[in-house]
């Protein structure tokens, strides 16, 4: 499994992290190998981590790019949103709490999110 981090710059309409996760999950094809999505939003956009099953890092990065391109070109509610970054690099906004050991009230480093499916 590969983790590909992306940064989306906000467009015309703001989106909640829940809605953006839903849209990403809906846009994924079986061939993308998408297993889980983590989204952290802020006023300027969103940091996204895609958990992808792929044969290589390059294949996972291609799936992430295809998924975001399909999403950004097909959904009116994402008008003006832009994919600013995509790759397997470290994203401080997502990794900082985990690396620094900053646990929240529930003892977890990252805020929880609803499961992607009933099986999770």
Account of the protein in words:
By secondary structure, the chain is α+β, with helices and mostly antiparallel strands. The protein contains three helices and four strands; from the N terminus they run βαββαβα. The chain has helices spanning about 15-25, 55-75, 90-100, and strands spanning about 1-10, 35-40, 45-50, 80-85. The protein has a four-stranded antiparallel sheet with strand order 2-3-1-4, with helices on one face. β2 and β3 (about 45-50) form a beta hairpin. The mean pLDDT is about 80.
Order of helices and strands: EHEEHEH
Helical/strand content category? alpha+beta
End-to-end separation in angstroms reads 16 Å
Give the count of helical stretches. 3
- The number of strands is 4
* Main β-sheet, spatial strand arrangement: 2-3-1-4
What are the low-pLDDT stretches, counting only 5+ consecutive residues below 50?
A: none
Largest sheet: 4 strands, antiparallel
The whole-number mean of residue pLDDT values reads 82
Question: How big a fraction of the residues is strand?
Answer: 25-35%
Helix content: 25-40%
Anisotropy-based shape: globular
Rg? 14 Å
């Amino acid at each position: 499994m590969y983790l590909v981090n992306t940064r989306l710059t906000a467009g015309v309409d703001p989106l909640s992290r829940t809605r953006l996760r839903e849209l990403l999950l809906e846009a994924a094809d079986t061939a993308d190998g998408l297993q889980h999505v983590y989204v952290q939003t802020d006023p300027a956009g969103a940091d996204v981590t895609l958990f992808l099953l792929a044969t290589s890092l390059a294949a996972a990065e291609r799936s992430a790019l295809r998924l975001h391109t399909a999403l950004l070109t097909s959904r009116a509610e994402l008008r003006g949103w832009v994919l600013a970054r995509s790759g397997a690099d470290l994203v401080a906004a997502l990794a900082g709490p985990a690396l620094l050991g900053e646990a929240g009230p529930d003892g977890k480093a990252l805020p929880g999110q609803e499961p992607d499916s009933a099986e999770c």
